[in-house]
# Entry
Amino acid sequence: MLLLLVMLTSLSAWSSETESETSASNVFVLPAQFRHEAALPFSYTVSHHNHIDALLASAPKWQQHDAGALNLGEVDDQVWLKVILKNDSLIEIPLLLSINNNLLDSITAYILQANHSILTLDLGDSRPLVQRPIKHEAQLVPLEIPGKNQIVVYLNVRHHGALNIPLSLWHPVEYLKYKSKFNLIYGILAGFILAMIATNFMMYSFTRRKYFLHGTLLLTSIWLLLVHLYGFGYRYLYADWQWMQQYGQSILVLMSTLLLIPIQRSAILPVTHRENVDNKLKYLLIISCLVTVICTLLPISFAMKCAYVFSIALVLYFCGITLFANATKFSHKLVVIGVYVSLLISLCYQFGFELGLLSGALLERPVTYLCSLFLCSYVSYILAKQYIAEREAHIKQQEHKLAKTRAEDALLKEKLIIQEQAREDLESSIDERTFELQVTLRELEEKNRELEKLNMEDPLTKVKNRRYFDKRLMMEVRRSRREQTTLSVIMLDIDHFKRVNDVYGHLAGDHTICAFAHSIQQHLKRPHDEVFRYGGEEFVILLPNTSQQGAHDIAQQIREATEQCVVNIADQTIRFTTSAGVYSAIATDTQNPTIFTDLADKALYEAKQQGRNRVCTYQLK
# Structure
């Protein structure tokens, strides 16, 4: 059948070439109410000249073509088309000359106007989209014919591969209506495929099943192939990437067939298991990827033929392994073969245009689109069905495990009852021991509080002891440095306390110390001001955030009160005085807090040296 088609096409081309040219070229006369001319008559010639001046100077022999697409097969030279349009009306008519083949490499339009000027326009997918006179996916040449005039349009067409040139003439309004209707139908179908792509990708995102990813890639490659064939890829996706426009068809044709291999290897489609077919499919996938890469290095025409021949061979192999598959249902196997046949029809239909066996406007024949839509719908359906089957199998497995677990639970109930009784007995015993432990812990807490109080309190005077003073001093030194406030320390000592012990006894001395501590506490008003027994008859007062003058005044008040204090014991009256040393400063070294007590002690020593019963303040030299 292919040989017969080639012979018929060659015979038709030969017969058209042998027709003698008429003395005058056909002139297409435009009616006043022109809307659309689907089959436009024109003349053509094959020449090696690439410019209109050189062509006209060579006096070419034009051959007439009355209707239909011009199909010359593969032509090495350049093809020139001549279209003469005449306007017999009095009004200017705007027109669009459409070359209904989006895949032609290069088209140069020369428009000879009534004033003998030539307007040159460049089209074709080997040039950027911005160079086209109308930035549209179709090859459009805008024309304007004044009233009672005619124009001549020359088209220089160059293409790698079979040359298929369908021409049509449109009024711009009618063409806009036609494209709006066409784009609406195409957009709905393309949106349906995009919805299937998005659904498969979302299913892969949620389930992480690899076959959903394979289906997404397959449907995406088919969608890109349709977008490429219909010119929308060149307009919206890669308008400035001419290499992709040239090689995109061969690459996408190979991708749309080789991506069926991973789906077949996942055992979703019926595949025969004889002679280790899975390994063959794996090697076939590697070979297909290599062929795809190699096609990008070959000439465009040869790469296109290799892509279609290899893809058709792949689909025939898929039909073979499906035909001999051990499918449980023959209807399932028959449907899959029908899907492969539809893919084969689509590939052969496109390959027919590339070989020159078919001609005309590819976009007006929805064979490729319908076959691709059927393939995408079935792939999406079979993937969803596979996932549902896996889910049902998983649910049955879970139900089986649940039934087994329930049986095991019934056997364990008696053990649980026995264990529950033992647990209750154990809890009762634990509650008794816990109560005893809580009582013991409460007693220990009370003892600890008493010990802590004894540890930080002087047993004689009931003021804080030296150990607690060291901790408190460290805290206040850090606060003084952090807040940059003055910390004051007062060291006090009872004058001639040894004489009190020697004359009145140690018991009287203890009473004197207690009276002195009580007198000091009465002069401390703020919560943070506190007195500590530093040792023997010596006491220290810690005054946070207190200036030197304020500390000196407090020390002076304590000295005066002590001078008036009288201790009565065993009908004896004891009077005593005190000396005090004051040191005030903002802390700078938190590692050496004893500097406050050392310098206050020096001031106290100075008060003793000056005669006692006085207050001295340490002054930094």
